[in-house]
Amino acid sequence: MEVYDVMRSTPAVREFTDDPLPDDVLGRILDGARFAPTGGNRQGVRVIVLRDQRTRAALADLALPAARRYTAQLAHGESPWNPLRPTAVDVSTIEATQPPAQMWAPLREAPVVLVMCLDLGVVAATDQDLDRIGVVSGASVYPFVWNVLLAARNEGYGGVLTTMAVAEEPRVKGLLGVPDPYAIAAVVPLGRPVHRVTKLRRRPVPEFATRERFDGPPFDAAVDAEE
Question: Mind telling me which residue stretches traverse the membrane in this protein (predicted)?
């Protein structure tokens, strides 16, 4: 597929058919994804390929606590898991909340689940001394994750980057034998999509891109070309 077509038609896939995802196809996906950039080309990404049903079910169970909180906060008008706005929803309400199946079922139902790990011992986290949540180290893993999803789309498969299980990282690491200093960055179910999406809806460029400053004029190539 042409690269722009792939970029414009790679959705978050959470429902899968019963079709398998063979090892040779998964091998091509990972072989293409490995060319994603990482800080200093240190390549600190490790991937755990999960096919065992019991392991995937246990992982789905570990995603439930974060999914309950997410759903409860959403129901109370909060921005779920927002680091700047702590939740006011009480623990008992969160524990009694039933999250939608799409937040945990893909980990049980997809033919394969990839657990993406990042070696924190090789990242350059240039934002580590700032008084905010760190995000820079993600630059050494999330391009790889996105490459996986793009490659899966090219092969006729799909998936979604999930993070609910990351909230229970110590238990996930115990389940999968992940040592320190690795962090769990994402859990990605992959399979053949039930529904085919050909066009995604996103904000137009002038709504999120500005010239020269954050409060600068919108970047609108079409309008600017006419002036």
Answer: none
